[in-house]
Amino acid sequence: MTIYVDHLQTHHKVNPMAKHLGDHWAHLATDGNVQELHDFAERLGLKREWFQDRPGLPHYDVTPNKQAAAIKAGAILVSAEELLIRCHTKYRGKDVESMVSRLSSKSKTRRTRTV
Asked: Which of 22, 48, 60, 110 is close enough to 28 for a disulfide, judged by CB 3.0 to 4.6 Å?
């Protein structure tokens, strides 16, 4: 099991339930057992009631400080797209590495494309 955290994102339309996060936050998720995610989150000082049991992608939203603490505690920093591929239940049992590799190739192509 691995814990992942994605890059900080700016959220312009903030859900009233997430106002305590401000408008910049990241997502903390796992490709494994949700209880291990809860244990990791507890070590970061996250409250269990902040857990979002989204179908397919249970996760915690984390502030910039908690994102940094998660990385220091061993979470792997990935893009939002990679977090989705690695952690969403619909991809379990699939060739995740191949999907991530294709995602990485597309990203490099977009960055190097000239106009």
From this structure: 60
Model pTM?
Answer: 0.77
Tokens of residue 79, six digits: 């893009």
Find, among 39, 100, 47, the residue nearest to 73 by Cα.
39
Q: How far apart are CA 113 and CA 107, in angstroms?
A: 10
Q: Tell me the C-alpha distance between 31 and 39, whole Å.
A: 14
Alpha helices in the chain (DSSP H): 34-44, 64-72, 80-87, 96-112
How confident is the model over 60-109, as pLDDT tens digits? Answer: 999 999 999 999 999 999 999 899 888 988 887 777 788 878 776 665 54
User: For position 114, what pLDDT does the model report?
Assistant: 41
| Residue 86 in tokens | 């690695």
